[in-house]
Amino acid sequence: MELKIAVLPGDGIGPEISKAGVKVMQATCDRFGHKVSFQYALVGAAAIDATGNPFPDGTYEICKDADAVLFSAVGDLRFDNNPEAKVRPEQGLLAMRKKLGLFANIRPVETFDCLIHKSPLRRELVEGADFVCIRELTGGMYFGEKFEGDDRAYDTCIYTRTEIERILKVAYAYAQRRRKHLTLVDKANVLASSRLWRKIAQEMAPQYPDVTTDYMYVDNAAMRMIQEPRFFDVMVTENTFGDILTDEGSVITGSMGLLPSASTGESTPVFEPIHGSWPQAAGKDIANPLAQILSVAMLFDYFDLKDEAAAVRAAVNASLDGFVRTPDIQVEGKEAFGTQAVGDWIAEYVANH
Ligand code: IPM
Ligand code: MG
Question: Residues with beta carbon < 5 A to ion ligand 2?
Fold first, then answer.
């Protein structure tokens, strides 16, 4: 197969984890006889500095033209504490999602046995937890009408039937391939938009008789995720709830540095870690590249390259088992490895196994 990949390293630790991801992707393609090419493009603060625009047209063209986007992270301290800033790095990410029509964000929440001790939850609660959050990504408050005055401001949460139906279809398809249990997370006791989600899900549920559908308010879901994470199989929810719940999901597994995600929709799919740009660590070679590398595995999955995806995951597991780990997940008494060293080790492992 021939793969054309747009690489968007972005800001903070982005360029470092991107390098590791590209290396592993190249090694896997070499090992399985695929041709891969990488086109680099600017996004986020890096793009603002160079062009004034966090998602320049040139970047959009490169993404549109590619088979997939390997995205890293955006965000920069210069903008975080400046509410007056008119352009922000995060707008680059949002523009990319909107312009590429990436309405479905797939965020698996999986535990790695050797990292469970890092979870703030007791081992017996979190062991075996394995669910996927399907977050709607191009609607809701993120993109609804906004007003920002000095004394009054608002964001609107709007959803149409079409937007809800298409994301629910994705969620049902995932549930059918997994343990056949779908939970719609909403706030239908308060929000009109949530009631439309629930109504449409109730209409669709009979078309999927093999799937058990249940409905849960978001506050309750936030609680249930820490009380009984194993309850969930596939969770589907609107944009803002999904943003919040997936951060919660990532810490219960032990490390945010390990969770990848895929965003799919109408155009080129994007694969990215769920963590942010961690500007304080930029350039220090300490960031964990595993979420980025596991995003490469999700990319292979998307193209139905199962062996390639499995090879990447096996190499990641081998690095964990061999204690080739960055400081955030290294055990006491063992020396931590740098971002690049972990990436190199994993690429080498894929090449030789
Ligand atoms: C995420 C991030 C983004 C979001 C930010 C960086 C705009 O938190 O991908 O979860 O809110 O969607
Ligand atoms: Mg988030």
Answer: 243
